[in-house]
Amino acid sequence: NAGVTQTPKFQVLKTGQSMTLQCAQDMNHEYMSWYRQDPGMGLRLIHYSVGAGITDQGEVPNGYNVSRSTTEDFPLRLLSAAPSQTSVYFCASRLDRASYEQYFGPGTRLTVT
Amino acid sequence: AQSVTQPDIHITVSEGASLELRCNYSYGATPYLFWYVQSPGQGLQLLLKYFSGDTLVQGIKGFEAEFKRSQSSFNLRKPSVHWSDAAEYFCAVRMDTGRRALTFGSGTRLQVQP
Questions:
Q1: Of B25, B12, B32, B30, nearest to B114 (Cα)?
Q2: Is residue A109 within 8 Å of A11, Cβ to Cβ?
């Protein structure tokens, strides 16, 4: 198993550009989530999904969209990037809502200029 | 709403010394508690978790943590630190209802001196 994979590893955007951060898992996990990590603030939940076709907002959803058309993939879209979205983004998955073991991807470092 | 506080932003210990990283949480019921470690440029790895039962839990890499309900704490300990333990450590809490997502503390960066 590859676990949780994220692409790209690094990205630089200009303000106003759009892009999609990719996340995939091959463990047949129902529950997937996106976090952003900023210095001194830990990880904050952006969006999450409890299964294909079902998504919901986390703590900091503004400026981000998600969709979950398959169990494996959970892309995160920035429609109009802003400097405040400069961060490291982590995707995570676990078997289902009740399970405890959560697996994290390696992260995507995004800079918006 | 649940919250997690890690009061120490940065800790430096000598190799071979003992370590304690503090974590306090705010939550109405007994939470599910976790400690994660993040090495530079890496994702997060689960060190240990507490759900119920014995309040002293053992994890990987020689770490342990003790749940103290009266103090709303879940401190991480290691009796003898190795240079490879230098990393950032995150405490997290999870509710057993609703979105059941992890809420993280702000992290403690551990530096190990030779």
A1: B12
A2: yes
Asked if B90 has any chain A CB less than 8 Å from its own CB, the reply is: yes
DSSP code for A15: T
Quote the CA–CA distance of A38 and A28 in Å, as a whole number: 29
Residue whose entry in the numeric block shows the structure tokens 């240079």? B83
> Which site among B3, B42, B44, B45 would you substitute to test the A interface, given the most A Cβ atoms closer than 10 Å to its Cβ?
B44
CA distance B23 to B29: 17
pLDDT in tens, A7-25: 999 999 999 999 999 999 9
* Test the B interface: residue of A102, A103, A108, A109 with most B CBs within 10 Å: A102
**Kind and range of the H or E element at B92?**
strand B87-94
Task: Find the residue in B nearest to A39 (Cα).
Answer: B106
User: Above 90 in pLDDT, residue A68?
Assistant: yes
B47 and B35 Cβ atoms separated by less than 8 Å: yes
Question: How far is Cα A32 from Cα A38, in angstroms, rounded to an integer?
Answer: 20
pLDDT band at A87 (very low <50, low <70, confident <90, very high): very high
